Structures are given as structure tokens and as C-alpha cells.
Amino acid sequence: MRATTRSGPVRSEAARRAILSAAVELLAERGYDQLAIEAIASRAGVGKQTIYRWWGSKSAIIAEALLEGMILRERLDVPNTGDIRADLGAWLREIGDVLLSKQGQGLARSLIAAATDNAEVGQRLRDAIAGSGALSTRLTAAIENESRLAADAPIDEIAESLVGALLLRALSRSQLDDDAIEGLITVALGHAG
Amino acid sequence: MRATTRSGPVRSEAARRAILSAAVELLAERGYDQLAIEAIASRAGVGKQTIYRWWGSKSAIIAEALLEGMILRERLDVPNTGDIRADLGAWLREIGDVLLSKQGQGLARSLIAAATDNAEVGQRLRDAIAGSGALSTRLTAAIENESRLAADAPIDEIAESLVGALLLRALSRSQLDDDAIEGLITVALGHAG
């Protein structure tokens, strides 16, 4: 995928990055529904045909940007102060704030819309936020270094549950208040009597 | 909302039901993206203008159908045999099967797409499946009649986590296998050491 000087349908890396960046910017500004290939091409300084040659649809562009960590990467880091309960609380509060902001809510809904459109986006979204992501890593560290989580705690499903609950909040635009955050932490860390 | 014999923009109950039913059928058959007001009107035997007079958008029609329990109601009943672990397993297996079917997956993605489009649909979707719904009722019964759940277990957040995890599965089209079901039940019922 390096730029070459040959002519023809060779994918230039510079153009590819420009197109992905333009798509990510426009996604945040306008939302998925209003995202048009023409606008992406114009902002990236390439022809529409260049985009159509490389990607089948706008959702495929978003999938590639997700895969490359151009969306969501920094926002989803879970802090590690050695106290999993406090760290999960800080993480949930930050995501709750993002989901309350107009831009964050737009991005969340745009990604969800792209995922309903394209199975690959769905898988990558799940991987990016629940699978091999920061949350699972933090939970695994809690098993190894803290006593809050049992050695056989189902890490993948805990991560999936938390991310899924956030998704549901994003869809219903409902605020994540302190009680809800406490409840979700309790679900994540276990509440068996 | 009863039918009347007066002329003018009175909402006839029969026409309203016919429109909602047509929308629900077409949603299942074609998906949200391909759902057109014109097709709804044609199947319901009303004019397009009748629909536009009563609803602002197709997502508003879906929201009303959701609210009236015309979508999702039967599918989401949680069995109550007195054993919450077995009942959650049966419920998750059934939803997992629905989500693997082409029609079920289409419906799930259609509802999610409608929710990204319209905050009201999002709230109603959340209420229908997580809020005052069958799952919370079943979990509350488990607190009262069984010893599996502590009296102060965060019912709302447990329901939200389970439904959210299912939503994430629907988006990523990934199979809900036995291990995942076991993991989710453990998250729901608590895993503190």
C-alpha cells in the first residue's frame, strides 16, 4: 500500500490516509446519514472515482478508519491507578460525558448506523471497544494485581456487558448518572452475596 | 383516537392500526433503510398524505409501533420456572437463535437504525427491552423468591447490561455460543469471590 510512481489503480498511501481522515472529520461534523462520497473526495483532494475504485461504500471507509484506530482510540483508554473500582468509575464518567455532548452522541450514533449497514464495521466496532481493547486489558490486570475480581471472572462478557450498556445509553440519549455508574460497576465487579 | 364519521384530519383508529401493521410487516421484510412511506401507505390502503399528516417520519411510526407492543413483545418474554439461572439461559439461547436468523437480524438492525435516527425510538427500545420489561420483572422475582440474587442487586443495570450485550452481538453478527451465554449469566447473577 505504498505510494508508487506507476500510473493506474495503485492505491497511494498518502491518498488513502487523506481519504480516511476526511471521512472521519466529516463523520464527526455531519453524521453518518449525511456523509457523502463526494464530500469526502472534495475534502481529501481526490476524485470520486478514486474512492469508488478502492471502497465499495461509505461504511467500508469507516470500517477501515476504525480498524486503523483513527476513531475511538484515545477516547476509550481505561486509566490504571491500581484501583479497578475507581478506574471503571472514571472511565464510565468520561464516556458518559462524551455521550452527553452533541459531537460524541453524533459520533456514537454514526458508528452504530454504519454498523447496522455493514457487518465488518459491526465486528470492528465490537473488537475496538470490547474485544482485545483497553477495557479487557484493564480487567485482566485487575485479576492479576488486585483482589476485586476472581481469577475465573468472565472478562470478555463483562467488557461486552459494559460496552453494550453504554451503547444502549447512546441510543436512548439518556444520562449516565452516579447511580447508574455505581450499578454498572457492581455488575462488572460482581455482586454475589 | 377512536374512528369517527367526521371528515377532516381526525385520526381514524382503524387507519392508524392498519398503518402501524403495514409498517411492522415491511420493516421485517425489507429493513429500515428500504422502508418507504409510499409502500406503507399502499399496503395499509391509505393515501401518503394521511401518513404525513399524522407522523413526521418513518422512525416516528416505528416508535409508535414499539410503544404499542407491536414489535418485540412476544419474543422477549423471560420464562419463570423458579430457577433464574436456567431461565436466563433459555432466554439468551432463544434470543441468540433469533439473532442468527436472517429475519431476526434484520429486525434487530432495523430497530437500531431507527433508534439512531430518532431519540424517541431509542428510549422506547430501551424501555421495551430493558426498562419496565419482562427481564427486570423476572430478575425482581428472583430476588424475592430465590437466593441467587442479593436483595440489593442492581436490577436495572443488570438488565441494561444483558440487553446491551445482545445489541452488540446483533451489530457484530456474532454467534452467541454456550460459553458466551454462561459468561453473561455469570455477569448477571454475580461472580464476586
pLDDT < 50 stretches of chain A: 1-9
Largest interface, with Cβ-Cβ < 8 Å? A-B, 49 and 48 residues
How does the helix and strand content of chain A classify structurally? mainly alpha
Task: Give the biggest sheet of chain A.
Answer: none
User: In one word, what is the shape of chain A?
Assistant: elongated
Spatial separation of the terminal alpha carbons of chain A: 55 Å
How do the helices and strands follow one another from N- to C-terminus of chain A? HHHHHHHHHH
Strand content of chain A: under 5%
Number of helices of chain A: 10
**Full CATH superfamily name of the largest domain in chain A:** Tetracycline Repressor, domain 2
Radius of gyration of chain A: 19 Å
In a few lines, what is going on in this structure?
The structure is a homodimer of 193-residue chains. Chain A has 193 residues and is an all-alpha fold. Chain A folds into two domains: 13-67, Homeodomain-like (Arc Repressor Mutant, subunit A, Orthogonal Bundle), CATH 1.10.10; 73-189, Tetracycline Repressor, domain 2 (Orthogonal Bundle).
